From TrEMBL:
Protein source organism: Gracilibacillus kekensis
Pathway, per record: Glycan biosynthesis; glycogen biosynthesis
Gene giving rise to this polypeptide: glgC
Annotated catalysed reactions: alpha-D-glucose 1-phosphate + ATP + H(+) = ADP-alpha-D-glucose + diphosphate
PANTHER family listed in its UniProt record: GLUCOSE-1-PHOSPHATE ADENYLYLTRANSFERASE, GLUCOSE-1-PHOSPHATE ADENYLYLTRANSFERASE-RELATED
Keywords, in A-Z order: ATP-binding, Carbohydrate metabolism, Glycogen biosynthesis, Glycogen metabolism, Nucleotide-binding, Nucleotidyltransferase, Transferase
Protein name (database record): Glucose-1-phosphate adenylyltransferase
Enzyme Commission no: 2.7.7.27
Length: 378
C-alpha cells in the first residue's frame, strides 16, 4: 500500500462571498464553464498528473458535492488499492468537531495518510480554475531538496491582500510568508498548492494540535513556524492561467475568460482534458432566427433568441426575441420572449418571464438571479 505521494484535496469551503451561488452548496460543487463543477479542474489535474491517491476533505453543505464526486469514476479514481476517498469530519469516543482550519483538517486525517506511508504529501484546494501538472511540481520539490514547496504566481498588486504572499531570495527560497498583508513587499502569491515532506509536516501538525493558541492553519501557523525553524521552503513559479473564483465578480470574469481564444484553458487540448459527469442531453438546437456570437452553448439547449459573449449550461432554453449579453445561465434556465439580460448570472432552473429586463452596469458587480429574488429585481 505504500505510495510515494498522497494528495489531500480541501473541499469544505463555504464560499460565503459567492452569496446565493453557495447558499446551499459547497463552493467546489458550484457549476462552472458550461458543463463542469469547480472541483472538476483539480480532480482532472490529479488524473492527468498521475496522482491517484486522493483524499477529498468535505465539510460545508456536502450533499451535492458527495453526489457529484461519488467514487471518483469520471476521473478514473475508482480504484481498488488507492483512488479517491471522501473524508468528512467524524466523531470518536471522546467526541469530535468540525475541521477548525486547513492544518486541523489534515491532522484529523493522519490515520488515512499513514495507511500509505508516503514520502510526500500534496495539499490542494478544490475551488480554483486552472490546468497544472503536479508531477512537475513534485520533481521540482525533489530537485530543490526542499522540506516544503509552494506553487505561486504573481497577482495584481491591488489583489495582494486576498492572498498569502511569499518573500523569497533570487533562487526562490522563501524567507517570509505574509498571510493577506495590508502592505506587501511583493506580489508573489501562494496558490494554496503545497508539497511537504510528510515526516517533517507530521511533527508540525502534532505540535499545532497541542497548541491552545493557534488558528490551525497552514498560512497563519504551520508555514511561519517552519520558516522560523529555518526549514527549506521554496516557491514554484506557475505561469499558466489560474483563477480563484471566490467572488461573484471573479466567477463572472472566469467565465468571460473562457471565451478568450488566447487562453490555454479554453483551447482544445486532448492531452489535458477536464473530466466530469455526462448528463446525456441531446445536442443543442439552434433555430433559424437565433443569432450567436462568441458564446458557449451546451447540450440540451434550444436557442431562438440572441446570444453575445455568454455561457449557457445544459438544458437551457432562450425564446424568440430574447437578448442575452455577457451572462451565465446555469442548467435548466428558461428565458421567455423579449427578455433582455446583460451581465447576469441565472441560477439553476429559474424561469424568467417574457419582457423582463435586467441589466447590471459595467461599473457594478454582475447580478445573480434566483427564484428567491427574481420578483424583487425584475
Amino acid at each position: 500500500m505504500k505510495k510515494e505521494c498522497v494528495t489531500m484535496l480541501l473541499a469544505g469551503g463555504a464560499g460565503k462571498r459567492l452569496g446565493l451561488l453557495t447558499k446551499n452548496l459547497a463552493k467546489p460543487a458550484v457549476p462552472f464553464g458550461g458543463r463542469y463543477r469547480i472541483i472538476d479542474f483539480t480532480l482532472s489535474n490529479c488524473l492527468n498528473s498521475r496522482m491517484y491517491t486522493v483524499g477529498v476533505l468535505t465539510q460545508y453543505s456536502p450533499l451535492e458535492l458527495h453526489k457529484h464526486i461519488g467514487v471518483g469514476k469520471p476521473w478514473d479514481l475508482d480504484r481498488m488499492e488507492d483512488g479517491l476517498t471522501i473524508l468528512s469530519p467524524f466523531t470518536v469516543n471522546d467526541g469530535g468537531s468540525w475541521y477548525l482550519g486547513t492544518a486541523d483538517a489534515i491532522t484529523k486525517n493522519i490515520h488515512f495518510i499513514e495507511r500509505y506511508d508516503p514520502e510526500y504529501l500534496m495539499v490542494l484546494s478544490g475551488d480554483h480554475i486552472y490546468h497544472m501538472d503536479y508531477d512537475k511540481l513534485l520533481r521540482y520539490h525533489k530537485e530543490k531538496n526542499a522540506d516544503v514547496t509552494i506553487s505561486a504566481l504573481e497577482v495584481p498588486w491591488e489583489d495582494t491582500s486576498r492572498f498569502g504572499i511569499l518573500n523569497t531570495s533570487e533562487d526562490l527560497k522563501i524567507n517570509q510568508f505574509e498571510e493577506k498583508p495590508i502592505h506587501p513587499k511583493n506580489n508573489l502569491a501562494s496558490m494554496g498548492i503545497y508539497i511537504f515532506n510528510w515526516n517533517i509536516l507530521k511533527k508540525y501538525l502534532e505540535a499545532d494540535a497541542r497548541d491552545s493558541v493557534t488558528n490551525h492553519d497552514f498560512g497563519q501557523d504551520i508555514l511561519p513556524a517552519m520558516i522560523m525553524d529555518n526549514r527549506s521552503l521554496y516557491a514554484y513559479r506557475f505561469d499558466g492561467y489560474w483563477k480563484d473564483v471566490g467572488t461573484i465578480q471573479s466567477y463572472w470574469e472566469a467565465h468571460m475568460d473562457l471565451l478568450e481564444e488566447s487562453l490555454s484553458l479554453s483551447s482544445p487540448n486532448n492531452n489535458w482534458k477536464i473530466y466530469s459527469h455526462d448528463s446525456n442531453f441531446a445536442p443543442q438546437l439552434i433555430n433559424q432566427q437565433a443569432t450567436i456570437r462568441h458564446s458557449l452553448v451546451n447540450n440540451g439547449c434550444i436557442i431562438s433568441g440572441s446570444l453575445d459573449h455568454s455561457v449557457l449550461f445544459e438544458n437551457v432554453q432562450v425564446a424568440d426575441g430574447a437578448v442575452i449579453e455577457q451572462s451565465i445561465l446555469l442548467p435548466g434556465v428558461r428565458v421567455g420572449e423579449n427578455v433582455i439580460l446583460k451581465r447576469v448570472i441565472v441560477q439553476e432552473n429559474v424561469t424568467i418571464p417574457s419582457n423582463t429586463r435586467i441589466i447590471a452596469e459595467s461599473t457594478s458587480e454582475p447580478i445573480v438571479l434566483s427564484n428567491e429574488n427574481l420578483e424583487s429585481i425584475s
